[in-house]
Amino acid sequence: MKRFKTVDDFIAGSENWQDELKRLREILLSTELDETVKWGAPCYTFQGKNVVGIGAFKSYFGLWFFQGGLLTDPAGVLMNAQDGKTKAMRQWRFQTKQQIKPRTIKAYVKEAIQLQLAGHEIKPVRGRPLMIPPELQTAFADDQAARAAFDALTPGKQREYADYIADAKRDATKASRIAKILPMITQGQGLNDKYRS
């Protein structure tokens, strides 16, 4: 996934959805939100807090409401893209420009801002125990340097690696992921360090 420094670069770098992304941007800029770029993608904030982001993929483009789990969703358009993992964030996917309804989008943004002003927030669950998948434990038994480096990582970085392996469905995928991450762990890197600024 490319990391862009400006919203203009993000839109220009989208292969399929440039006009649609421009339209979403135009709508969001007509609200009280401030535009910025976070994690290489457009992000719109209110009083410094993330409210909504724009994303584009091969088969769809969309909006990401950071506290979308709190929205009433009267149009029934929001979905949790990572069931079981994401409690707060919700996506609103579009496949055509005609699906973009400025009034509805602005109503969702307005509700999101009101919820933020009222102090409502879904906070991440902290303190759940770290579960290292058996495949990763086996790899650590064969590579003590990687195990020592893993133990030296922050709990958050340890969890990212453990979840990355546990989320793979097939044994072959788990094996290829382990081969990819062991050198990163040994170097003291976090799985998502390249996305952190």
Automatic annotation (TrEMBL):
Domain YdhG-like: 17-113
Name the UniProt record assigns to this protein: YdhG-like domain-containing protein
Organism name: Stieleria magnilauensis
